[in-house]
Specification:
Strand content: 5-15%
Oligomer: single chain
Bound molecules: uridine-5'-diphosphate-glucuronic acid
Largest sheet: 8 strands, mixed
Distance between the termini: 54 Å
Radius of gyration: 24 Å
Number of helices: 18
């Protein structure tokens, strides 16, 4: 099967590489020449565990190009995986999706059938809009054209993208005709039946069951994506809200996480209190869902509250540092972790950035470290003065507080005693409840966690 993927971001590139691993003929289109230059050299423009390994295996088989016209005519299935950034009012901007659809319709063969798959996260109803865009171009070209539009939302998590691509929980397809379902069933057959040989470094999980492909209508498929992300976002905000109350009444949130998570109706995952969610998805998608609701004249107070609680968590952390030090002015604060979550170099909407800005605004000197995301973060805060540290073991020298913001594995193993010894005032603010309070205290720290 000939497949063209428009967009080589986290979703587009992961999908291209995985489909190529299944021996499909894959072409990937991106307008960003810098990214393509790297991809032509076989280098991944993003950090995602395992992606470079897989790219090493398959990059010579993927046709990377800036030109839709080069590859679309010969494709059978075309996937749109471009960004849908937030507009000022929170609504998702689908301009790039529509633009991609327009370009595709301009160059496709009049007599050939194509399946056009929307993988980008888009507001409910975008599938119809895309079909309209295609029809308008066909009218302009004075051709009949034959494109079936399908919605196929992506659920992969950064840091676990390949895991999610090879071993998904489910595949959701929204379409109005059987051809599109059939094309996607064929495309995903290696995943649905798990007929591929797993990469040696990413074996099939022992308890993994064959994933269902859920067929539904396009609007529902689009809604499933927003509802899933919003549900996870509010699950996290809920536990953070309970964590705040735990601090006031003297309970330990990690015990609550365990105690309610063991109820199989609730489940333990996405129930970790901390600084809250960031990244390119939850902040954008919760806002976009509220935008969809507002257009429909519908209120979503739970979703609104989840956002309020989430962004308050960042302020609460700064307040904790301020309270511990009496003032932030002239104090040296060390930030451990800048990426919005571990195992990615992505700093979009990362809590670390808001926290750093607030600290600097209040006169603190900030030192920051991330195993992978230092240079991305450096770019993001280049308008303020922040010292980026390469060797985390040296970060706490003469510092007033150490703040763990992103729970990278490497921080779990830090020698707390050494770090505490180097500090002026050994205060540890554990924004992700990674450390045992007893061990931190034994190492010489004054320990402050979240909800404990
Ligand atoms: C999320 C969804 O999990 C994916 O299913 C979806 O495909 C993706 O958005 C998307 O829409 O593209 P992602 O944003 O990569 O994936 O990361 P998550 O692992 O969901 O984490 C999001 C944020 O929640 C992170 O900042 C993380 O630190 C935070 N989090 C997560 C918590 O604070 N507590 C938890 O228990 C779990």
């Amino acid at each position: 099967m000939n497949i063209t993927i428009i967009g080589t971001g986290y979703v587009g590139l992961t999908t291209a590489v995985v489909l190529s691993y299944f021996d499909y003929n894959v072409a990937a289109v991106d307008k960003d020449e810098g990214k393509l230059n790297l991809l032509h050299k076989g280098k991944s423009p993003i950090y995602e565990p395992g992606l470079q390994n897989l790219l090493d295996e398959v990059c010579h088989t993927i046709h990377f190009t800036t030109s839709v016209a080069d590859v679309v005519p010969d494709a059978e299935l075309i996937m749109i995986a471009v960004g849908t950034p937030s507009q000022k009012n929170g609504e998702a901007d689908t301009r790039h999706v529509e633009e991609a659809a327009r370009e595709i319709a301009k160059v496709c063969h009049p007599d050939k059938h194509y399946t056009l798959v929307i993988k980008s996260t888009v507001p409910i109803g975008t599938n119809r809009r895309v079909a309209q865009v295609v029809d308008i171009v066909f009218e302009e070209r004075n051709i009949q054209g034959n494109i079936s539009v399908a919605s196929n939302p992506e659920f992969l998590q950064e840091g676990l993208a390949l895991q999610g691509a090879f071993y998904p929980d489910r595949i959701v397809v929204g379409a109005n005709n059987d051809d599109a379902f059939e094309a996607l069933r064929r495309l995903y057959q290696p995943i649905l039946e798990q007929t591929f040989d797993s990469p040696t470094w990413l074996p099939r999980p022992a308890a993994y069951h064959l994933p269902p492909m859920m067929a539904t209508d396009p609007n529902s498929a689009e809604m499933i994506k927003y509802a899933a992300n919003t549900f996870l976002a509010l699950k996290i905000s809920y536990i953070n809200e309970i964590a705040g109350l735990c601090e006031d009444v003297g309970a330990d949130i990690t015990e609550i996480e365990r105690g309610i998570g063991l109820d199989s109706r609730i489940g333990r995952r996405f129930l970790r209190a901390g600084i809250g969610w960031g990244g390119s998805c939850y902040p954008k998608d919760t806002a976009a869902l509220l935008g969809v609701a507002s257009q429909a004249g519908y209120q979503m107070p739970i979703t609104e509250a989840a956002r309020v609680v989430n962004f308050e968590q960042r302020k609460r952390i700064v307040k904790k540092i301020r309270n511990a030090l009496k003032t932030l002015k002239g104090k040296t604060i060390c930030i451990l972790g800048l990426a919005f979550k571990p195992n990615t170099d992505d700093i979009r909407e990362a809590p670390s950035l808001d926290i750093i800005r607030q600290l600097v605004a209040e006169g603190a000197n900030v030192r920051a470290h991330d195993p992978i995301a230092n240079s991305n973060a450096q770019q993001a805060v280049k308008d303020i003065s922040v010292e980026f540290i390469e060797d985390v073991h040296l970060i706490s020298h003469n510092a007033d507080a150490l703040v763990l913001v992103t729970e990278w594995e490497t921080y779990h193993k830090l020698e707390l005693r050494k770090l505490a010894k180097q500090m002026k005032t050994p205060i540890l603010i554990d924004g992700r409840n990674v450390f045992s309070p007893q061990e931190a205290i034994a190492a010489g720290f004054h320990y402050i966690g979240v909800g404990r």
